[in-house]
Design goal:
Elements: E1 2-6, E2 10-17, E3 29-37, H1 39-49, E4 54-59, H2 65-73, E5 77-80, E6 87-93, E7 99-102, H3 111-125, E8 130-134, H4 145-154, E9 159-163, H5 166-173, E10 183-184, H6 188-195, H7 199-207, H8 212-222, E11 228-232, E12 238-242, E13 246-250, H9 262-275, H10 280-295, E14 314-317, E15 322-324
Parallel strand pairs: 1-4, 1-8, 2-6, 4-5, 8-9, 9-10, 10-11
Antiparallel strand pairs: 2-3, 6-7, 11-12, 12-13, 13-14, 14-15
Helix pairs in contact: 1-9, 6-7, 6-8, 9-10
């Protein structure tokens, strides 16, 4: 089983336009989609679609539209009662794949709710292969809560993945190696935040075929106790760095419809491959295949296994500079 903890869940509303977004203009919508959201919930949705048992832990109250939506999707969840309903995040999607996101800060909750969420995660983690801590933290929750959670979860034996950004990410890294997770999934901006590198330079180098700066940044995190760094680089693909080596993935060219949930799908794809017994190169291959599939879908739709083609992803072992063929169990 995989447990996800989403501290700041949302009801995701995607408005698809029939033409470009024009500031100050009146637009007619082509389609409106509403789905349960928040990064951990997105991971749970992809894992569930792939047939993997998953439990989503989140703050929420009976009757909250978010919980109703999770039930509709068939996602097992454990909701800790809180004072307010989940936030609503709005995405405006243009026909060329450009997405504009309007994310609410989320509802504040106090130490009691936070303690109950942590207790629930620790209790379920004892029987979980992985526990995923994902997304932003709502107002009133301390920036270093993810660091506290990693330390609390460590004793359960679960492996821990973290995907967050900005202040919570910096607070987590400030407590490495004590709070270093088994997996982090930064994009180029987040990798720069973690290491002091320049985000634009990291991605520009990768686009030009030079992954050395990304690998160096990833290795600096591994040296500080992180088990694996899955760095997603948009159209430039992704790089995986562990103590054993480094690999680069190049994705096939696709027509992007929405980038919402692409990173979460990549993290889920990595976990799907890991639970299937695949090695690091094929974990990276599946991560990029799932992320690539996500951007071809409208709004907040997320990929299932039938829409994913790992064989179309090219993997290179960056130490031997040789291609890695897909493993077929």
């Amino acid at each position: 089983m995989i447990v996800t903890l989403t501290a700041n869940p949302s009801l995701d509303r995607t408005i698809a336009l029939s033409g470009p977004l024009v500031r100050g203009a009146v637009h007619r919508t082509a389609e409106v989609l509403v789905d349960p959201g928040g990064k951990g919930i997105n991971v749970a949705r992809v894992l569930h679609a792939a047939g993997h048992p998953v439990l989503a832990i989140l703050p929420g109250n009976a009757g909250d539209p978010l919980l109703v939506a999770l039930d509709t999707h068939g996602i097992d969840c454990l909701a800790i009662e809180t004072a307010s309903p989940a936030r609503t995040n709005t995405t405006v999607a243009e026909p060329d794949g450009t997405t504009t996101k309007l994310n609410e800060p989320g509802s504040a909750y106090g130490p009691r709710t936070r303690a109950e969420l942590q207790a629930a995660a620790v209790a379920r983690a004892a029987s979980a292969d992985w526990t995923v801590l994902s997304g932003s933290l709502p107002p009133s929750v301390p920036d270093d809560w993810y660091a506290d959670l990693v330390c609390a979860l460590r004793a359960t034996g679960t492996r821990i993945a973290v995907d967050t950004s900005e202040a919570p990410l910096l607070a987590l890294s400030a407590r490495f190696p004590e709070a270093a997770p088994d997996l982090v999934k930064p994009n180029s901006d987040e990798l720069a935040q973690l290491t002091g590198a320049d985000a634009a330079a990291l991605e520009a180098a990768a686009v030009a075929g030079d992954t050395a700066p990304v690998v160096a940044a990833g290795r600096s995190l591994v040296a500080r106790g992180v088990g694996a760094v899955l760095a997603t680089l948009g159209a430039a693909g992704a790089v995986l760095v562990t103590a054993e080596g480094a690999w680069r993935a190049v994705a096939p060219v696709v027509t992007a419809r929405s980038t919402v949930g692409a990173g979460d799908s990549s993290l889920a794809g990595y976990l799907v491959a890991e639970r299937g017994g695949l090695g690091p190169a094929d974990r990276l291959r599946h991560a990029v295949a799932y992320g690539c599939a996500a951007v071809t879908l409208p709004g907040t739709e997320l990929p299932g296994p039938d829409s994913v083609d790992p064989a179309a992803v090219t993997i290179t072992d960056l130490e031997s500079r040789s291609p890695v063929l897909p493993h077929h169990p």
